[in-house]
Write the structure tokens for this entry.
Amino acid sequence: MPETKSPHILNTSSNLLGFCLIVMTSLKIADRTEAGLLDELTGIASVLLMASCILSFLSMRTVHAIRSERLERVADVVFLGGLSLVFIAILMIAFHFVA
């Protein structure tokens, strides 16, 4: 059986999901209403990363090779979308685009 990326996607996306939840919780605790865009970005990234977790898990659990590969490819693309949004959120925080 060829080497799959699904375990790596699952591990990394769940870690990044935790990061997004910490950022969203920090914004809520600090009552940062002006950080609306950052809140929206991390919320969307969280949804994408959770979808990536689910898809990669299903890819590992599926017994049909073709379906497993398809799920893995979709999980990979969704993960890249979530990762891109996390990158934008980090840039916003690092360069003080959020007051």
Q: What stands out?
A: The chain has a mean pLDDT of 87. Residues 65-94 form the longest helix (30 residues). Residues 12 and 57 are 12 Å apart (CA to CA). The chain has one domain: 6-94.
